[in-house]
Amino acid sequence: MKYLKTFENSEEEIEFGVTPEDIKYLFTDISDNGWKVDVRFLKKLFDFRRLSDNDSDLKFGLIPYIKVSISKPTPVEQRFNRSEWKEIQELNTYINSEEYKEIIEVVSLRLDELGLYINKQAPENRQFNILIYRKTDENYIKIIW
Fold first, then answer.
1. How many domains is the chain partitioned into structurally?
2. CA 39 to CA 31: how far, in whole Å?
3. Which strands, in side-by-side order, build the sheet including 60-71?
4. Beta bridge partners of 123
């Protein structure tokens, strides 16, 4: 199993130059405060026709990105008695705090050294998502948004 995991991560390392564990390490301060941090390497389908003058050619490609999700871990015994509204309010309070902003500032500087950048931060249900892209894909991402 050890070798299988290495094989699965090798593609991610080639695309980004980092592993999910490296990215999770950048968010250690958040997880130390009791928040759950999940890192996923994903790809987004992109229509490259927007970049060319010839609209008749279909040209699609995948742009890799990293999705970091921050949420409050819930103990098993509280799963059915939890208040979704309270969890959302607690997450919003933390996201708007100075401590969180300082952590994100430091993470941004470290990502910059790795050739990555934070593109979007947005709440989604009971979690907060941070999307990280490669700087080489920055021109494509500006067109999408």
1. 1
2. 12
3. 36-47, 60-71, 127-134, 116-124
4. 128
Give the residue numbers spanning the domain of 136: 2-144
Q: Are 60 and 137 in contact (CB under 8 A)?
A: no
DSSP 8-state secondary structure symbol assigned to residue 48: G
Give 106-126 pLDDT, tens digit per residue: 999 999 998 999 988 888 878
User: Whole-angstrom Cα distance, residue 112 to residue 121?
Assistant: 16
> Where does the chain have alpha helices with state H?
2-16, 20-26, 28-32, 84-95, 98-113, 138-144
Residue 7 — φ and ψ, nearest 5°?
Answer: -65, -40
Look up the pTM and report it: 0.77
Q: d(Cα 13, Cα 132) in Å, to the nearest integer?
A: 14
* Lookup result for tokens 């991560």: 9
Q: First CA to last CA across the chain, in angstroms? A: 40
